[in-house]
Amino acid sequence: MPIHSSPSSWILETRKAAYALGLNPAGLLTHRYWGARLPYVEDYPSPFNPVHWASTDGPHHFVPEEYPGYAGTKYVDPTLKVTFADAVRDVVLEFQDFTVTGSPQPELALRLTDSVYPLQVTLHYRLHEELDLIERWVTLENLSDQPILVERAFSAKWTLPQGDDYSLTHMYGRHIDEFRMKRESLTPGLKIVESRRLIPSHRAAPWFAVDRNASEESGEVWFGTLAWSGNFKITAEVTEFASTRVSIGVNDWDFAWKLMPGEPLVTPSALSGYTQNGFGAASRLFHDYVRDVVIPHGKVPHKVLYNSWEATFFNVDEASQSKLAEIAAQMGVELFVMDDGWFHKRNRDNAGLGDWFPDAVKFPNGLGSLIQKVNDLGMQFGLWVEPEMVNPDSDLYRAHPDWVIHFPTRARTESRNQLILNLARVDVQDFIIATLDTLLSENNIAFIKWDMNRGVSEPGWQDAPGDPRELWVRYVQGLYRVWGTLRERHPNVIWQSCASGGGRPDFGILRFADQVWISDNTEATARLHIQEGYSQFLPANTMEAWVTDWGRDLVPLEFRFHVSMCGTLGVGGNLLQWDQAERKLAADRIRLYKEIREVIQFGDQYRLISAQKNEYSAVQYVSKDKSESVLFVFRTYIRDPFNLPMIYLRGLEAEARYTVEGMEGARSGKAWMEVGLKVPLLNLHSKVLRIQRVRTS
User: Fold this and answer.
1) Active site residues
2) Rounded to whole angstroms, how far apart are CA atoms 631 and 683?
């Protein structure tokens, strides 16, 4: 059994890692250990006992409580803060009992209650043994007859081995410059990474990694993420006594939840893991989890798509889309996606959002004949939508101006000429479900690109059933209800999450979407940076990557294709302006991608030379059975003379023999990994090399 339990001690073991906690002599639920799995149960340390220091500090600066509430002399960052009906503003949790279950996955539930008030808090732990991951979440229950105001309820606090010599790696960025990585030393105090925009946002991502001198390939890394598509907060705290802890959960900024009797509040899941094999191994564990557990269609290869946005913008009609579809089909495209501009009175970005039916002028006979044309060309049909938004110039807004997020006494800030529908409202959810259900039922649509093009403003909710600040959570819950209902009714449709690019990439949305549009920046040299950051916690098959005309005069088409082939390949350039040579090259690259895409989409990814740190970079994908591999090498702008770096392959069988395309002879996997190889490139050139295991008779 991977969970070893006693009345006061619990040890959770995965394939290579372990996590231990227990009750200390003072009765506090205390973290004990997080690291490599140990041979024997008795090897794990005992729970920490309170240490007296001075009247100015409580024991919690020494004792790493598993889920500390705001109370007493706990001057550490708490995971829970509430206000009871009598205005008492702290919570004192006492352990009650636990349960262990083994199916379908091992789970531990620890039940705690407040020492005076009828508040029950259950800490949940689920093991993903083979993936070396632990999933945690919390359930709050009000057992009284009066509301309790919840002001913070994080999903987990993770305590690291004693010490203050850790570094934190997290994401930062902005629109068209997402997934920049920042690694910084943790010093005494509190470091916060957060989003306050209703979505995870371009400027942050709900992911962290903590290490002590780890590299891409070696060293201890503790890492985690929050499966949540809204405001989040990560806090990394180092106390003055060298206790380092990381908390993660729904952001408590402007948040409150009126916990009504009999209505539990369940926090989002936090996933975390530990590895001794560096940042690359941490990434691969998350990649496998997303592909094996999270996304709806698992190991179904994603099709090569063409998106018509950059060719026609809002000027879409059946004739223009048909012409583009003909060219795309000749190139080998498998999925044709019509972007913005197809619906009622949508000629610019200032009108139409909310009226999700075909424009009568552009499509007098509906979408059916265009879809049939695309299908006859051998492609599936996809469509762009932005259902969370509404233009004031729309039939929907004129009928329901109260449906948007707003404060009644304030002006309604329009960003991109649009307002946000309040998906916390059930009537808004029902409208979106009914509208898109009709669209999908009446048309043979295989793919939906769901966009969300602005952050929140005036976050008001008049007539909210609870505290209006519940909006931040209820909106995301409403979004999940909409996506979940539509997925149930149309299970074969592939969904893509887009929020002005990479504004909403997380494990929560991927329970419904198979792909993410990671950035509106499709310039290939910039994409190398963006794609590397994204790969820290999300796999290549979820990453939609277009070949566009951005940088066409400087960056060769082959380079642009190779960059996009590192994920789920798409094309978004204006095909009407591509000459025959460009279309032929595109057809050749698409043909190659189809041959290698299962290795890229489902194999193990190795970041051999970082694109965020170097102008010469390399990334490798290895099939799970290690029989084949694909190596991509890129050179951007480097002044000659330039001494080419060695590329050391990874993930191969040491004793097996492999050939590398363009290299003479076969070598052992160990030789390719230890001796390495060189791939000469000129500026703004790239290569893709196939690696094959030599069959033995």
Assistant:
1) 451, 520
2) 18
Chain centroid to Cα 165, Å, comes to 28
C-alpha distances out from residue 414 to 441, 455, 628, Å: 32, 10, 51
Q: Pairing relation of β-strands 568-571 and 305-307?
A: parallel
Percent of the chain with pLDDT over 90: 95
Span 331-344, mean pLDDT? 98
Q: What pLDDT is recorded for position 55?
A: 76
Query: CB–CB of 209/536 below 8 Å?
Result: yes
How do residues 126-152 score in pLDDT, each as one tens digit?
Answer: 999 999 999 999 999 999 999 999 999
User: Against a cut of 0.85, is the pTM above it?
Assistant: yes
Distance (Å, rounded) from C-alpha 327 to C-alpha 333? Answer: 9
Q: Do 674 and 654 contact (CB within 8 A), yes or no? A: no
Crossing angle, helix 318-331 and helix 368-376, to 10 degrees? 20
Q: Is the pLDDT of residue 103 over 90?
A: no
**CA distances for 635 relative to 114, 301, 552, 618, angstroms:** 60, 29, 16, 9
Tokens 């990585």 belong to residue: 181
What does 258-317 look like in DSSP terms, one character per residue?
EE-TT--EEPPPEEEEEESBHHHHHHHHHHHHIIIIISTTTTPPPPPEEE-HHHHTT---
